Structure formats: C-alpha cells, structure tokens
Amino acid sequence: MTEHLPGAPARPRVVLGVGGGIAAFKACEVLRGLTETGHDVRVVPTEEALRFVGAATFEALSGQPVRTGVFTDVPEVPHVRLGQEADLVVVAPTTANLLAKAAHGLADDLLTNTLLTARCPVLLVPAMHTEMWEHPATRDNVALLRSRGVVVAEPASGRLTGKDTGKGRLPEAVEIVELARLLLARGDALPRDLEGLRVVVSAGGTREPLDPVRFLGNRSSGRQGYAIARVAAQRGAEVVLVAAHTADLVQPAGVELVRVGTALQLRDAMHERAERADVLVMSAAVADFRPVDLVEHKIKKGDLDPDPVRLTRNPDVLAELVAARRPGQSVVGFAAETGDADTGVLDHGRAKLKRKGCDLLVVNDVGSGGAFEGEDNQGWLLSSDGTERPIPHGSKAHLASILWDAVVSGRSSSEVPEPGRQ
Q1: Which residues does the annotation place in the binding site?
Q2: Where exactly are the structural domains of the chain?
Q3: I need a labelling partner for 332 at 20 to 30 A (CA). Which of 239, 242, 249, 360 fits?
Q4: What does the alpha-carbon distance between residue 270 and residue 379 come to, in Å, rounded to a whole number?
Q5: Which of 320, 223, 283, 317 is nearest to 403 (CA)?
Q6: Average pLDDT, integer, range 55-66
C-alpha cells in the first residue's frame, strides 16, 4: 500500500477511466481488484464505454456515482476535482481514440478533462486491434505520452474481436491491478529505462520426477519471477521468461514465455537464451538434487524400498551462467535462506553472493513461511560492490521495481557495451 502524507486519506484515491472498447467488461474485474485491496475507486467511463457496461454495474461495484459529462454536479466542479484529488488515474481499456485525445490535450468529456487536471501518476492500458496499435499515428501518440511521464502499458497478445489474434489485447485484470499498486507504491511514473535491453528471467520451481506420479519439488509459486519479467517489459525491455512449475499464473503482457519442467531443462533453456541477453535474472527455485533412477511406471506403495531414494546433484545453473557471461552482461541471483544456530539469514546470503559471483543477490528469509506462494515479499538486496539494502515488505512487483532500479544503476555506473551487442 502506498504511503501518504499526514492528513491524507488512508485509502488511496483511484480514478478508473473506461474507454469504449469491447474489453470494457474487464474493467469490472480491475475495479473489484482495486477495491478489494483497499482503494477508494471512482469510475469515469466514456459515453461509448456505457454501451458495453452499464453505469449501474460500475456504481454497484464501486459504491460511487458514475458520470460521463462535465455538466453534472457542476457546483462540485468534478472535471477539475477528480484529477486534482486522485492518487492515481488508470484508464483500462484505453482505445486508440482516447490515446490520441490524451496525447493532444483534447478534453470533451469528464474523463479527458480528468486526464488534463491529474498531477498524480497516470496509467493508460491500451486495447485495440493490432493494425491500430501498430499504426504510426498511435505509435507517435504513445511515444509522446511516455515522454511526458505517462505510463502507457504494453498490451498483451492473443484473441481480439472476431477471429482476429495479435498484439493489442487488454492485459488481464490481475496485471493491471499489480501495475496500479506498483505506481502507488513508487509514487511516480515507471521509467522506460530498459529499452533496448534483452532480459532473460527464470521463475517457478523445478520438478524432478521419480515416476510418472511422484516428483521432488518445492513451494515456489513463480510469482516473484513473473513480477520481475512483467515490470521489465513495462520498463521497455525485450523479455524472455523461462518458467518451471507455476501456480497457474497469467503470462505477462509483452513477454515471451518458455515452459520447462526439470532443472536440466531449465539449465538448457537459460544457456541457450543467455547468449543474446544483456541481463539474466535467476529467480527460479531450482532443485539441488534429482533422483538417480526414473521409474517408467507408477511405483506401488507395497513396492517402495524402505531405504532412502538415491539422489544425484543437479548443476548449479547460476554459477554456470556467471562463469559463461559475456562482457557487460549483468547477472542477478536469488537466495531463499533460513538461519541456523550459528549463522543468520543475511550472513548466509553474503556467503552465497561471494560464492556465486553474481552482480546482485536478493536474499529472502523463508524460515517463517515468507516469500514462497504469497502475494508480497521482503528481504535484502546485496551487491558485489559490498552495498546492502533492505527491501521493505510490499508487493512482489514493488520488489521487482527496486531490483530493476539497482540493475539500471549498476549498469550506468560501469562501462557496458551497447545493448544486445558483445
């Protein structure tokens, strides 16, 4: 949740604009996601949006009146007050028409007036056909808005209206809510400082099969890795996400997804894609061991040998990536640690950073049940130059944002080749 100045409301005030596109129905899930996470939401649709979703639906879900024009409740001056008082403005979906109006300062209804008066972070989430998204006029409008500090999210790829598929689909509601929470936590725009960089992120937990039914695994949900990939894409990077087992997570918009199962499969996928990457982030929970023997049929309970299952060690993927990295390539690792009688979590993390040789290491204390499976995270960010930074409790997208801030800072402070080149 965002921090507020003394006297400010405890619930962040969000204006949710809704454009007139078929994806307007998804705004209901965005609205629900924002209200259920403690936000005070006022919905401001366009007249066209109300052709897809009625005002009564938005009013029932938000508990607030819905207006579209500037001549309703005139004494309250809503066309000025809404933007002035908002902590965040989100427009989902943002049509090509709305993008053009926002870029050129047109204000012919309540929503576009609100965009002109807003002095808080603004998140526009486009949804349109691929041809419209790729049109030079739209691309110019997006570039102009981003140059002014407006966050224009990358659209997803997939099914559009009719039989068409392609880039331009509205991201899923959970992604939009996550980005909104991130902007509130940051208190400013999301920079496009990763443009031109190729990023590879691993996520999830590997599963090492014993037979067709049983496996060795871990509790990793993949949420942190997905958040890292999602934030990188929204900051302009070209992102590949190598995902082991995850908890039915939504593919991040603008991210290429590669699915793997075992540690060896993840290792091969990471090495293959590392050759062209500028930044590698190993956030997957890779199994340290795998069974020596893979049985092709299900082992019956009565046939189980009471002796321990024989295991062999898996390769250390992070250490291999560090050893093989190109000049100027940044490598980030993760350490899920618990303290013991002699050594604390942070000391274990420091030793791991020295042993692995990566540029940055995120250390999570998982002894108390934190980090794995939950929506939020916290820990420490250790750097190879000896600096250490605590990461306060917050969303996994916020941790991802802090991580990318550190990556950008580290790359800018050292001489690195032009992105994508050796």
Answers
A1: 288, 298, 315-318, 334, 352, 356
A2: 13-186, 198-412
A3: 249
A4: 25
A5: 283
A6: 96
Q: Facing residues of 41 across strands?
A: 14
Active site residues: 218
CA-CA distance, 215 to 198, in Å (whole number)? Answer: 33
What burial letters (b/e) apply to 111-122, b meaning 16+ CB within 10 Å? bbbbbebbebbb
Helix ranges, 235-386 (H): 263-274, 317-324, 345-356
Q: Please, which pLDDT band fits residue 7 given cuts at 50, 70 and 90?
A: very low
Q: How far is CA 80 from CA 74, 75, 77, 383, in A?
A: 10, 11, 6, 46
Q: Please give the structure tokens belonging to residue 51.
A: 């052709």
Better-predicted residue by pLDDT, 143 or 421: 143
Binding residues for CTP: 288, 298, 315-318, 334, 352, 356
Angle in degrees, CA 124, 257, 165, rounded to 5? 60
Report the percent of the chain where pLDDT is more than 90: 75
Segment 165-211, tens digit of pLDDT: 899 999 999 999 999 999 999 988 899 999 999 999 999 999 999 88
According to the model, what pLDDT value does residue 163 have?
Answer: 82
The CATH code for residues 13-186 is: 3.40.50.1950
pLDDT in tens, 217-248: 888 899 999 999 999 999 999 999 999 999 78
- Partners of 259 in beta bridges: 243
CATH of domain 198-412: 3.40.50.10300
